[in-house]
Amino acid sequence: MTKVFLASRNAKKLVEMRRILVEYVPDVEVLGLDDVAPYDEPAETEPSFAGNALIKAHAAVEATGLPSLADDSGLCVDALNGMPGVLSARWAGAAKDDAANNDLLLSQLADVPGERRGASFRCAVAFAYPVGAGGVAEHVVHGEMRGRVIHSLRGDGGFGYDVLFVADGHDRTSAELSAEDKDAISHRGKAIREIAPVVADVLVGL
Considering 34, 35, 72, 201, which one is annotated as catalytic? Predict the structure, then answer.
């Protein structure tokens, strides 16, 4: 197996990453945080998705020695001046509580009419890998999915704010789409497809 590390414990993210990478590297094995020795995960202190993704990717390479991917993504709501943005996972507090985050977002948009509930899911995916004697190379790509926040939760797939988000040109939430349909339009799917050939070239050359 050709191994690449994804700095995440989210099982759905790991499956999603492998589903897209396998098209380029058929024998790829995507390892997550629970598959490697524990290490101190860095705080996501940067003000941008790209900055946070790079912090995590570099820490992953240092800890595992493997070519490593990391992403940072979030929901940017027009009526909230682009928030929660990089704070999406902890919008309702320190814990990554999807239910609490969704409840808070709904309450903040309670008086906002449908035509003003525009939003974007945005993602940065960073890929870092060892080069030479102690060096690390990096690549960063971005993806965006434009849509709107609806008034109530719908669907039982996906994660995070998927149950509240309907992409432009669609009438189902991201949580109601099949995995394949979501990959085709999602911010993360777009970013992973863009970086997958770069990952494949590096893995094949190792």
Answer: 72
